[in-house]
């Protein structure tokens, strides 16, 4: 496993090349299938099992359908699971950091972005520090932020926004205690020897560290969810340079999104009706892969 000095795994140029080659294959069809719906629901159920009594938040589009599936599973299983979708695209790093963005991270030229406007947006969707802390204090319900990870610039930028904000309110420790961060990374056997989960942290310069759980994800699933076709988007693109205005509506085509949403619902019903069926084998109980 490739590591930096702090032991944090990071994506090497070789991994990025492998991911890019899979992206080129995906771009040949640019649609989601029923198999994608099943994979999404399987990931969603695994998160529910791993983080009981947690709220879940999708950071941008990559995990958005997974959080959508958690909402469906919660309804089907009669559990009270809160879900959130946060618009976030890109990062606050102007040049790629060598290795990982997880060691002593701070954004490049933060003053160029309208951070106050983005904070206002986070408050409007109940993902500000006060809302996260209050959920934990009231119901002992942590908020688990989910994302897909390549070099860590996006999740590190978002973590810095929350931590610096909480620091100003003297609530940083409360925020750290009220959050989980769960990151998927591409599972490439010759580069990642460890199977399953392994824990680490995002170190923010002058602000401490957020604990992180990394989970290896099938490379094809990683790419297909991470490179969501425009017609299937349910989370708007919202780069830091655009924070001076509210996010635009998601780009997804209503008819396409509705059809795939139905496929995710059907996959959730199959999994819920067979609770003892191993998640990784649920595909054999579901007809696929017809294009959506």
Description:
The protein has 292 residues and is an alpha/beta fold. It has one domain. The chain is built from nine helices and six strands. The chain has helices at 13-26, 34-50, 64-76, 115-124, 129-139, 153-168, 172-177, 219-226, 254-273, and strands at residues 54-59, 83-86, 142-148, 179-187, 198-204, 208-218. A six-stranded mixed sheet has the order 2-1-3-4-6-5, sandwiched between helices. Helix 2 (34-50) packs across helix 3. The longest helix has 20 residues, at 254-273. The radius of gyration is 18 Å and the shape is globular. The two termini are 37 Å apart.
Terminus-to-terminus distance: 37 Å
Radius of gyration: 18 Å
Main structural class: alpha/beta
The average pLDDT score comes to 82
- Please trace the helix and strand order, writing H or E for each element: HHEHEHHEHHEEEHH
What percentage of amino acids are in beta strands? 15-25%
Number of helices: 9
Q: Tally of extended strands?
A: 6
Give start-end ranges of low-pLDDT stretches.
1-11, 193-198, 280-292
The portion of residues assigned to helices is 25-40%
Shape estimate: globular
The domain count comes to 1
Query: If strands are numbered along the chain, what order do they take across the biggest sheet?
Result: 2-1-3-4-6-5
Q: Sheet bearing the most strands, described?
A: 6 strands, mixed
Summary tags:
292 residues; alpha/beta; six-stranded mixed β-sheet; disordered C terminus
Short description:
Helix content is 39%, strand content 15%. The chain has 292 residues and is α/β, with parallel strands linked by helices.
């Amino acid at each position: 496993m490739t590591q930096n000095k702090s032991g944090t795994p990071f994506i090497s140029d070789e991994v990025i090349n492998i991911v890019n080659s899979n992206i080129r294959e995906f771009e040949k069809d640019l649609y989601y299938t029923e198999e994608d719906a099943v994979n999404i629901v399987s990931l969603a159920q695994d998160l529910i099992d791993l983080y009981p009594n947690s709220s879940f938040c999708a950071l941008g589009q990559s995990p958005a359908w997974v959080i959508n599936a958690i909402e469906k599973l919660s309804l089907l299983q009669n559990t009270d699971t809160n879900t959130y979708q946060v618009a976030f695209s890109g990062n606050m790093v102007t040049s790629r950091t060598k290795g990982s963005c997880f060691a002593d991270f701070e954004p490049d030229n933060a003053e160029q972005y309208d951070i106050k406007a983005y904070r206002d947006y986070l408050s409007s969707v109940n993902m500000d520090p006060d809302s996260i802390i209050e959920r934990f204090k009231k119901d002992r319900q942590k908020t688990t932020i989910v994302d897909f990870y390549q070099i860590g610039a996006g999740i590190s930028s978002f973590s810095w926004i929350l931590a610096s904000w909480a620091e100003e309110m003297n609530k940083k420790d409360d925020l750290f205690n009220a959050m989980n961060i769960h990151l998927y990374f591409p599972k490439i056997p010759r580069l990642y020897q460890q199977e399953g989960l392994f824990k680490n942290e995002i170190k923010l310069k002058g602000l401490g560290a957020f604990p992180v759980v990394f989970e290896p994800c099938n490379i094809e699933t990683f790419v297909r969810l991470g490179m969501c076709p425009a017609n299937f988007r349910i989370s708007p693109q919202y780069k830091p340079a655009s924070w001076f205005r509210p996010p635009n509506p998601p780009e997804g085509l209503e008819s396409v999104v509705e059809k795939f949403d139905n496929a995710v619902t059907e996959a959730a019903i199959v999994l819920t009706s067979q609770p003892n069926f191993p998640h990784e084998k649920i595909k054999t109980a579901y007809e696929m892969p017809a294009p959506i």
